[in-house]
Design a protein that fits this description.
Its cofactor is Mn(2+). This protein has 432 residues and is α+β, with helices and mostly antiparallel strands. 34% of the residues lie in helices and 16% in strands.
Length: 432
């Protein structure tokens, strides 16, 4: 790893140390313990579910798979890392890398699961509900103080130089996976084959992906969170949608691409091109102070123009938005905050912590606050042919070109998604 990244990480940790010291003072606390979390076994089994460490723990250590460990922050002291490293011949215990950032912590290697040492007025955050020591912790500390957690969430909304470098590298690795996925599709692969090609090229195990990859052929491209992989290739190849990511040092890439197949209606390829152009147009409008809700509404206006220009709707673009036609073709939000979590924290709050819920007209929107430098967001316009959403329109008098819609329905839908850093003067596309 480059010396520059190491230095950025040490500066990131130093910045967190200053910010957390201020948080402790704001909430009149002497110490704060952050629990990494742990995986839970399936019922009556010793096989665990998928796991990722608690986000505020990852914010410090940059490792997404640390279990049964604690980070203790105390006033005017170095951070104390209590790392669970049992003697175990069944599993390989967690190991810290030989990297300079480790020296920023006082590291305690623990062969047993511990209760963290706390002093004075204390708080504990993280999922501790199933710990045997939960009751003991509740006697000496405040568990999950809401105001404190909100303040720590807000720290993660804007990214340090180190975090941006990690997100950029996660994107680079994910792009390699997307290129391999497209090549597999050209080779007439099944959904599972596309997934395996993606994992191989992005150099990760399926258990390491930041979210379950969406690999949808044909109609499956219209299932927003499609969760299966067919084992056999379809006889006809209309489309492929790949929504897949990658972690780097705990930070997530979240990229989506849609491809036209050899059997697709001719208009489908033109629609994919139009959606790429709309994505680029929306990114060009990103700048500090831009209201993300307004940008989402601009996406609906752009989508309405595409529906009209490509003959899917024979009325005006304005009426397509006003009558809710675009919402039937595009039911989700334009994007979300991105960082340690794919749908990162604090997107539905204002900087002072007050709630900022999604508007009634766009209930699936995950980000409702104005953009500011250092934020990283996704921009993901889409156009879907989802029968259950379009069915109500068929009983109304809207001038939808149902003949063309039905021809395109075999393609499922289109989503294009890039990861965008908000800069002082505009934006930087991390997915290039």
């Amino acid at each position: 790893m480059s010396a520059t990244l190491y230095q950025q990480q040490r500066e990131h940790i130093a910045s967190l140390q200053r910010a957390y010291q201020q948080c402790l003072a704001n909430h009149q606390l002497d110490s704060l313990a952050i629990y990494s979390g742990h995986a839970r076994n399936h019922f009556a089994d010793d096989h665990a579910t998928s796991f990722q460490s608690y986000g505020h723990f990852i914010h410090w250590v940059g490792m997404a798979d640390v279990q049964h460990s604690w980070l203790v922050i105390q006033s005017n002291q170095r951070p104390q890392l209590y790392l669970y490293t049992p003697a175990d011949f069944w599993h390989l215990p967690t190991q810290l890398p030989e990297e300079p950032w480790v020296a920023e912590f006082d590291v305690h290697l623990c062969s047993d699961k511990i209760t963290p040492p706390l002093s004075g007025r204390a708080a504990v955050i993280g999922d501790v509900t199933e710990l045997e020591s939960a009751a003991q912790l509740a006697n000496v500390a405040t568990l999950q103080p809401e105001a404190l957690v909100r303040e720590l969430d807000e720290l993660r909304m804007t990214k340090s130089a180190y975090e941006i470098a990690c997100l950029r590298e996660a994107n680079r690795l994910a792009v390699a996976g997307h290129q391999a996925a497209n090549a597999a599709f050209i080779g007439a692969a099944a959904e599972l084959d596309v997934q395996l090609a993606y994992l191989a090229a992005s150099r990760q195990r399926e258990s390491e992906v930041p979210y379950q990859n969406i690999i949808g052929l044909n109609e499956h491209a219209g299932v927003l969170h499609y969760q299966h992989y067919d084992l056999s290739a379809p006889k006809q190849r209309y489309s492929l949608l790949v929504d897949a990511g990658r972690r780097f040092r705990g930070y997530c890439a979240d990229i989506t691409r849609t491809y036209t197949g050899p059997d697709a209606p001719s208009e489908f390829g033109a629609l994919i091109t139009a959606m790429h152009s709309l994505k680029d147009e929306l990114i060009a409008h990103i700048a500090p102070g831009v209201d993300f809700v307004a940008l989402h509404e601009k996406m609906h206006q752009g989508l309405a123009d595409i529906l009209v220009a490509h003959g899917l709707y024979n009325g005006s673009a304005e009426s397509a938005v006003e009558a809710g036609i675009t919402r039937a073709f595009y039911p989700h939000g334009l994007g979300h905050s991105l960082g340690i979590q794919v749908h990162d924290v604090a997107g539905l709050r204002q900087p002072d912590g007050t709630p900022s819920p999604a508007p009634n007209a766009h209930p699936a929107l995950r980000l409702t606050r104005p953009l500011q430098p250092g934020m990283v967001v996704t921009i993901e316009p889409g156009l879907y042919f989802i029968p259950m959403l379009l069915a109500p329109l068929r009983n109304q008098s809207h001038p939808v070109n149902w003949t063309l819609v039905d021809q395109l329905a075999v393609c499922g839908g289109i989503r294009i998604e890039d990861n965008i850093l908000v800069t002082d003067s505009g934006s930087d596309n991390l997915t290039q």
